[in-house]
């Protein structure tokens, strides 16, 4: 995929952090130092250079800073990305550069490596430099020359304490590299009357191998320190950037999964050089695969703890909540994760039950924590869509993995959740009552009485619970009778074209909500019988396609009025939620509206890919397609459901 303007693809693995690489082969937004929510920006001292021709392989090597050098920049750079890879074709001089972090399904070790690999093909003398950014303060930063299986520069900070998020080390190197440990790239400039980046070391006359084996920043110095490695190549060579941040800062006392396998950054580099792990994800060149692969970028906003717990930020800048569920958030990213790492995903889905509160499932597992959940994000209202979502996740994990022990362990907790939800059905219509208090994932929109979104989701969760009971040999006849009430009430929301948003004794909302049948999507995905009439499901999906789809040229609008105009009541209703849009597109495909579903998905992806593919928002402005809501949103990979739906349909042909 071509890079949009000012967008970089994050390269990194599960739980280890990432670095954004841009189309001109510059970098930004480093989060490898336990700083997911506080990325390091404006990076100085990172360069790729062909010393044979004194030419940077970067289009703008200093980005925002003056660069004092006689070196040249390339004639052209063609860049494309397919997460977690970036590829560059460079001319004058001629090189091909592939930058990636390994990702190997069902191999958690090789998918959580704190490593970025630079495969460089061409002929010349390639130099890679990187700044020592270890430790929050500069004093104490120390570089060491490393010679062994992999040569290079080890960067650490002798004064950093274990409570410092940046406590650890960084290594750059390759097999047979030469190295320079005292790269001083931030110097005073008389003409500018300020500090400037100095890259004159790459002009071919002052870079030398050898010298001291240790160099450190002295007390009170304003110095910034980097390292350089270089090697003559004729063909293809690999350079490595590895890291090892094993501190225990207050916001992340858990340790990293990679600490189970490695002792330091050199250890990681030697392993990568020896084993050569790669990216093992589909690459068939079509737009849907590109959309899916690039939407997996959200995995770089993840924690993978030393004891094997995975958590993803709802967004790493504003909410800081981990593994948020409801309305296709963690519940959507966990679909591909279940395919790639089933045991890990089951563990984290089951983890929610540890925080069960008298039948109420939490909204997440903590605010930048995995032990302090929030119960509904609009206190004091409990949410009606979290419990059904969790039940469907557990049932899904059982159906996709045949793990009956998982079902058996969680059955009584599933029953507690169902019973708690039924207790919220005060009018006895079979659907937990919406109280108008922001009591579901549409937490900025009032709903009252019987909501099609809540009713549909609850109905399928009830269907899944009944089937779980049957499979475990437990009588569920009482719940079957309640399901009939749920079905009847849902059918009463039918207006001849779609299921209206909600109705109560006093009022109703006749708008067409995209998620009105989200539960029926779950039923289709899980092989459960639908709750409402099949023909009405298809008619409703077609109405969503025609009404919500035509309301915006950018995306599928969350809610429209019966005449197809955009529902302007709240920001949530007048916007588009990509995670829901892709889920609805998948539902269309499963219900036989294949062209319509692909059309919805393709339009939404076109808006995203042209603007913010690696920073997908929680909301899209339906009027201009602009970024709206929470950034780097957890539900970004929902487009997997579109690909999954197509595969399911093709299997039945």
From TrEMBL:
Q: Which SUPFAM superfamilies match?
A: Six-hairpin glycosidases
| MF term (GO), any | beta-glucosidase activity
Q: From which domain of life does this come?
A: Archaea
In what residue span(s) does the Glycosyl-hydrolase family 116 catalytic region domain sit? 308-641
Q: Does this entry carry the keyword Magnesium?
A: no
Annotated TM spans: 630-649
Provide a GO biological process annotation: carbohydrate metabolic process
**Entry's InterPro entries?**
6-hairpin_glycosidase_sf (IPR008928), 6hp_glycosidase-like_sf (IPR012341), GH116_catalytic (IPR006775), GH116_N (IPR024462), Non-lysos_glucosylceramidase (IPR052566)
Question: Taking every annotated instance into account, which residue ranges of this chain make up the domain Glycosyl-hydrolase family 116 N-terminal?
Answer: 8-272
Q: Does the keyword Transmembrane feature in the UniProt annotation?
A: yes
Key words of the record: Membrane, Transmembrane, Transmembrane helix
Question: What is the official name of this protein in its record?
Answer: Glycosyl-hydrolase family 116 catalytic region domain-containing protein
Source organism lineage?
Archaea, Thermoproteota, Thermoprotei, Thermoproteales, Thermoproteaceae
């Amino acid at each position: 995929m071509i890079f949009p303007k000012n967008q970089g693809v994050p390269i990194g693995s599960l739980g280890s952090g990432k670095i954004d690489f841009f189309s001109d082969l510059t970098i930004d937004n480093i989060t490898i130092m336990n700083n997911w929510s506080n990325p390091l920006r404006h990076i100085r001292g990172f360069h790729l250079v062909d010393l044979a021709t004194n030419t940077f392989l970067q289009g703008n090597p200093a980005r925002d800073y003056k660069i004092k050098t006689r070196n040249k920049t390339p004639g052209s750079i063609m860049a494309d990305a397919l997460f977690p890879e970036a590829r560059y074709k460079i001319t004058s001089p001629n090189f091909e550069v592939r930058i990636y972090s390994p990702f190997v399904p069902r191999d958690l070790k090789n998918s959580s490596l704190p490593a970025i690999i630079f495969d460089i093909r061409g002929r010349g003398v390639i130099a890679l430099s990187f700044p020592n950014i270890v430790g929050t303060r500069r004093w104490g930063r120390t570089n060491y020359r490393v010679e062994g299986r992999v040569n290079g520069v080890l960067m650490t900070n002798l004064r950093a304490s274990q409570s410092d998020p940046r406590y650890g080390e960084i290594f750059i190197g390759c097999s047979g590299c030469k190295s320079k440990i005292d790269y001083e790239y931030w110097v005073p400039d008389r003409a500018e009357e300020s500090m400037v980046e100095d890259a004159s070391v790459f002009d071919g006359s002052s870079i030398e191998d050898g010298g001291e084996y240790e160099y450190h920043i002295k007390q009170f110095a304003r110095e910034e320190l980097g390292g350089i490695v270089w090697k003559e190549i004729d063909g293809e060579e690999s350079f490595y950037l590895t890291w090892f941040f094993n501190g225990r800062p207050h916001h992340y006392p858990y340790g990293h999964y990679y600490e189970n396998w490695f002792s330091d950054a050199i250890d990681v580099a030697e392993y990568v050089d020896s084993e050569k792990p790669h990216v093992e994800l589909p690459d068939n060149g079509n737009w849907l695969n590109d959309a899916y692969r690039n939407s997996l970028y959200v995995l770089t906003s993840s924690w993978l703890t030393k004891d094997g717990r995975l958590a993803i930020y709802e967004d790493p800048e504003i909410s800081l909540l981990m593994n948020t569920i409801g309305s296709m958030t963690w519940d959507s990213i966990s679909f591909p994760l279940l395919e790639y790492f089933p045991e890990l995903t089951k563990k984290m889905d089951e983890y929610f039950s540890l925080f069960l509160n008298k039948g109420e499932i939490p909204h997440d597992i903590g605010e930048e924590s995995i032990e302090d959940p929030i119960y509904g994000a609009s206190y004091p209202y409990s949410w009606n869509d979290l419990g059904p979502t969790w039940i469907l996740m557990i049932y899904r994990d059982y159906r996709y993995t045949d793990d009956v022990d998982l079902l058996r362990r969680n059955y009584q907790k599933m029953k507690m959740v169902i019973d708690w939800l039924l207790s919220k059905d005060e009018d006895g219509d079979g659907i937990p009552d919406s109280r108008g208090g922001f009591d579901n994932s549409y937490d900025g929109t009032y709903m009252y009485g019987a909501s099609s979104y809540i009713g549909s989701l609850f109905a399928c969760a009830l269907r899944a619970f009944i089937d779980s009971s049957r499979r475990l040999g437990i009588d569920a006849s009482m719940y079957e009778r309640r399901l009939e009430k749920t079905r009847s009430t849902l059918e009463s929301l039918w207006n001849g074209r779609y299921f209206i948003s909600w109705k109560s004794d006093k009022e109703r909302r006749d708008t067409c909500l995209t998620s009105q049948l989200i539960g029926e999507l779950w039923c289709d995905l899980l092989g459960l019988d639908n709750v409402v009439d099949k023909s009405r499901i298809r008619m409703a999906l077609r109405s969503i396609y025609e009404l919500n789809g035509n309301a915006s040229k950018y995306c599928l609008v969350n809610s429209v009025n019966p005449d197809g105009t955009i529902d302007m009541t709240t920001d949530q209703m007048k916007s588009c939620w990509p995670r829901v849009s892709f889920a609805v597109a998948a539902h269309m495909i499963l219900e036989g509206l294949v062209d319509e579903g692909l059309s919805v998905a393709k339009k939404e992806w076109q808006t995203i890919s042209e603007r913010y593919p690696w920073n997908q928002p929680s909301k899209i402005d339906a009027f201009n397609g602009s970024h709206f809501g929470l950034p780097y949103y957890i539900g970004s990979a929902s487009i997997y459901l579109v690909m999954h739906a197509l595969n399911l349909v093709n299997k039945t042909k």
